[in-house]
Request: fold
Amino acid sequence: MIQYTRFRLANGLRVIHNYDPSTAMVAVNTLYDVGSRDESPTLTGLAHLFEHLMFGGSAHIPDFDGEIERAGGIDNAWTGNDFTNFYSVAPAVNIETLLWLESDRMLGLAFSPQSLEVQRSVVLEEFNQTHLNRPYGDLWHHLRPLVYRTHPYRTPTIGLEPGHIEAVTLEDVKEFFYSHYAPNNAVLAVSGNITAGECRRLVEKWYGSIPRRDIAPRTWEPEKPVEAPRRKVVYGRVPQALVVAAFPMGGYGSPDFIPGDLLTDILASGNSSRFVSRLLVDNPFLSHADASIEGSEEPGMLMLKARLAEGMEDRADEAADLLAAAAMECREVFSEAHPEGITAREVERVVNRYLSQAEFNALGCLGRAQALAMAEMHGEDINTLTARYRAVTPGDVAAAASRIFDPRRRCTLVYLPEGSKPTL
Reply:
């Protein structure tokens, strides 16, 4: 049980606090309700660029990282499709430094041409290293538009192409900042050796005068359902062929989200799991198999993946058929009436694994602050997480498998090494 208090400032900033007197540290986590789904389709990668720009100097502080280091702290950030998150950890006696730093960049960035050019070059280099020049690095560039035709999820967080990042102007930066990075579009979580009263006093002091802003509305239309199987073959500088079968599924909070998450653990958690063992033992031309979900706020996807052994790319179509057959087997077998159906013990095992990992992550003040921030963003009590997972039954998982593994909605991506013979 995590003890916490919540309050909201007049400018809309939601604050959640956890007091932990057993540590000498404190973590400050700021979660913004903005991600790559909020970008213009002609200016993708902007949210990720902003993650870097937020470290390039703010209204009154030219050197964010330098001030963090002088306070004996560390800091970092991440950007996703749905959210952008910034965090810092330092000795609790320096909590005011952390709040001063975070509040100043919420108030406003330096908006200098020099900072934009520096961070632009950093992001372009990251684009090259992690997506364009790494084997399978551009997988999402092929898979996302196969599953999504209109929704912003069709574009990876890094951006559609480097040209979009190269085209960002200082005016684009200002417009995006003032329409998304605001107290009324954020959750601030503080965890560590600071009392609730002192936390509230300092948050009011540093954040209370930041004005509310008009947040840009989300105007995209919901993605239309996939009504017939889709298939795409791509070639790249990869050592082995890779096949992915992606099935659209509900987003966070939907009836299929938690059962779908548990389903992938039952299928592919460890070499002895159902999906992995059957695929690899019976088909030695495959070298790796796994299953996972793309956890997202709006409808996401469940993926079955198989990597072929080196030199076996001519059997990629066979691998795709095996993934399709595995999905159909799940629909047929995963029922409480079937002899091979999911057992209560299997569900209990993966639930225990998930919850133990969640509890381990929340042992430190940073993990606790991040978990509390996300729960607050979702409008949830973090302490109900255990009950929600414990309530899932084998029937719930089987029903989710039946809905998700619809053969009419299967999207298959075949990724082949350059020079391979075309598949059918």
In short: The CA atoms of residues 332 and 402 lie 8 Å apart. The first strand starts at residue 5 and ends at 8.
